Amino acid sequence: NKEEDETQNENEKEIREELGMSQEELSEKSGVSRTTISGLENGIIDVITNITLEKIASALGKKVPEVFFQD
After folding, report:
1. What is the pLDDT of residues 10-52, one digit of tens each?
2. b vs e for 31-68, b when ≥16 Cβ sit within 10 Å of the residue's Cβ?
3. Rounded CA gap, 49 and 19, in Å?
4. 67 Cβ partners below 8 Å, 6+ apart?
5. How many CB atoms neighbour CB 25 within 10 A?
6. Which residues, 6 or more positions from 32, have their beta carbon under 8 angstroms from its beta carbon?
7. What is the per-residue pLDDT across 45-66, written as a single tens digit (0 to 9) for each?
C-alpha cells in the first residue's frame, strides 16, 4: 500500500530529524549509503533488505518495527 509506505518513510525521516541527524550522518553511522537513505525517505526505494533496515534502525537507536512498521 503506497500510503503505508509513505508513512513508514516519513517515520524514519522524523526520527532522524528529531535526533538532529542529517542523511549524511545517518549514512556514516549506519554504513548505509546516503543515496539509499534519501531514496527510502522520498519513496523512490521501496524494496530493501532486512539487514539494511536493521542498520538504519540501530543507528537511530530504535528497533526495526519502531522505525519502519508503525501505523
Report:
1. 789 999 999 999 999 999 999 999 999 999 988 888 788 999 9
2. ebeeebbbebbeeebeeeeeebbbbbbebbebeeeebb
3. 24
4. 8, 11, 12, 15, 53, 56, 57, 60
5. 15
6. 26, 52, 55, 56, 59
7. 878 899 999 999 999 999 999 8
